[in-house]
Amino acid sequence: ASQPNSSYITTQAGNLPCKKIIHFVAQDDIKALVSKVLQECELQQYASVTFPAIGTGEAGRDPALVADDMIDAVTEFARSNSAPSVKTIKVVIFQPHLLSVFHTSMQKRESSAKTAAKFLLSKLTSFWNSEKRSSKEKTKAVLEKKIDLAVVQICGENKKKVEEAENWLKSAILKEQFQTEITDESIFHFSEAESEKLRDLQKKLKIALRLDGTSIRISGVEKDVWIAFSTIREMIHRVKAAKQEEIKAELLQNLIEWKYFEEDKDSYVPFDSLTNMRLENAFTGKQKDISVIIDEKKYTVNIEARNAVDDQGKRTTIIRVDKSEGK
What UniProt keywords are attached to this protein's entry (predicted)? Predict the structure, then answer.
């Protein structure tokens, strides 16, 4: 047996269906104890660990407090390890009434949980898997998807029947699930409007979206995944078109620049590049007038007369400067 810590020792599993057994000394701070064991499992790169409902037997500990301490320890472990070796944490429950106690403790954290958790409870075991959000996730488009917890109690004549039912249930769920990913440089240029649209998709459809730089991963019910895929493709197309329009407008402004006279500055001020392009298009298309925004007010520009008038009749002069002349 190895004894890396005074509060527990690790031994071989013998005939039990596991690799190691960690024996720990009873103590009041169950949360600290569970945390130590989880860190030891992570250090040894174990893939899974199973706990008893510590102290709820002959020790007579309050099951609700035990559940809170154990779940707090697991939650903190998941949040502090972005890519843990420990993928599965199980709590073995021999007393049926403890299932509801642990479930209640989990529900208390549902509203504030930052991790997506899935629970599968059987007559003997309670499973907890947790995923931590990537720190690389784009901050300007944080997509939060509330995961509704599903609790399934499986009872059967024997262990084999329970396992068969569990496998069937997992298979049925997986058949409905699908995942795909869209990668495009335009995703990086998504504005708050696009981010809000993505959040709306998550609310309306049975999907989860993961935004990471220039890619979006879509997972969920297959039909809804493809609906979201099509919608996001359309969003990308619009963003690309808008970006190309901006580039075109900026290039044009290097050659032709429309300006309006601002009395406060006693000088001519350039229009923004997109308005500049609209004015030039109106000019070349021999359009009589066009609406523009100047200082957050709507003006009607008379292209031929070279002036702009707002709704109150205030008039200002505009000019067209051909920068290519004289070059």
Answer: Glycosyltransferase, NAD, Nucleus, Transferase
